[in-house]
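Final report, closing paragraph on structural work. Over the funding period we assembled a curated collection of sequence-structure pairs, and we close with a single example.
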Amino acid sequence: MRNKIIGKIAVAGALLATTSLAQAEDVEVLHWWTSGGEAAALNVLKDDLQGQGYGWIDMPVAGGGGEAAMTTLRARVTAGDAPTAVQMLGFDILDWAEEGALANLDSVAAKEGWDAVVPQALQAFAKSDGHWISAPVNVHSTNWVWANKAILDELGIAQPTTWDEFIAAMEAVKASGKTALAHGGQAWQDATIFDGVVLSAGGTEFYKTAFIDLDMDALGSDTMLEVFNRMTTLRSYVDDNFSGRDWNLASAMVINGEAAFQIMGDWAKGEFLNAGKVPGDDFLCFRVPGSEGAVSFNSDQFAMFSVSSEGGQAAQGAMAAAIMSPSFQSAFNVVKGSVPARTDVPNDAFDACGKQGMAELAAAASAGTLVGSIAHGHANRAAVKNAIYDVVTAHFNGEYDAATAVEELVNAVEGAL
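Its predicted structure, as stored:
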C-alpha cells in the first residue's frame, strides 16, 4: 500500500508541476460551511479564486460536524466522480491519503514555504509519507465559552474564572427565567462540550492519556466520573427544546439575549460578528473555566483529489496557493472566527477574541498543551470518535447515569480499536 500511495503521489506531483502550462478549469468544492458566518468566510476564498479567472462550483452539504459531507464524498468517490477539493478534518484526511486518492501538493508547498510556517501539530494531518496532501485553512479551538454581556451585566455576574463560578453564574441566569446554556442536541455538539469539560476536570495530561493514548485505566477512572458528572450538571441548564437544534441557532440564542452562554468552537464568533456584535461590548469569549492554558484544536483543511487533466491540476494548485497566502489567511480567519494556520500572519486585523486566540494557540503549542479535539477528528480516527460520540450523547440525553457512562465509554473504545 505504501508503494501505491507514493506512486500516486509522485504522478500527481508531476502533474502539479506543469500547472503553468495548463488551461484553467473550474473548481468544484465540497464543504459544510452553510451558516451565515461560515458562508461569509467562504466567500473570501471564492472571490480570491474568481479574481484569478477560476470558476467556482459550490457543493455545500449542511451539517456542522461534517459527517453528512463525508457520506456524500464517499458516494461521489465510489461513483468515480470526486470533487476537485474537499473540506476535511484530521484523521479523515489521512484515511483518504492511505487509499491513494489525494493529489500531491509538494510543488506549491515548496514554492510557498509551508514547512517553515505551518505548526507541526497541523502538518501531522496535512502530510502523508512526508508529502503535502492538503492545505490548512485555519486553526479552530473548541474549549471556548461565548457569553451575552448584557445578561451578565444585568444580573451582576462577573466573567467566571473557575468551574464553581461558572455553575453559579448559570444558576443565577436560570433563576432569572432565561436559558443559561444554549445548546443543540446533536452528537458532535455534545462532544464539543465534552472537549472542554475533559480539559476542565482532568487537565491536559489526563486528556492526552485518556483520549489520545486511549489508556483504559484513565478512561475508567474517577476523573472520568467527574467529567460525566459535570456533563450532567451542564445538561440541567439547557432548555427543553434543544434536541436537533443546529449550532448556529444556539449561537443566535446568545446573540439575541435569549441565553447567556454557549460552549462551542470559535466558529461561533463568526455568527456574532455577522450579526454586528462586538467582542467586549456585546459578547465575551473565554475558555471553559478550568481549562485555561490548554487548547483543544481542529483545523479545516482542503484536500485535493487526484485529477488527470493539467487544467484541473492548475486549478488545485491555484486554490492551494490562495488558501495558504498570508493575505487570505488573515482575511478569511478574521471573518471565520478562527486563527491562521500560518504562524507568520500578523494579528493587526483581528479583534480582541482573535488576538486572544492567536496568543493562546502559540502559548499552548510552546507549552505542550495543544491537543487534538476529540469531537472534531483530531484525537482519534473515525471509529473511536464515533464510539465516544455514542456514549457522550446517550449520557447527555439521560440514557446513562455518570457511573454507567464511564463503563460504557471503556467498552465502546475497546470495541472500536
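The chain has 19 helices and 14 strands. The chain has a mean pLDDT of 91. We thank the funder for supporting this effort.
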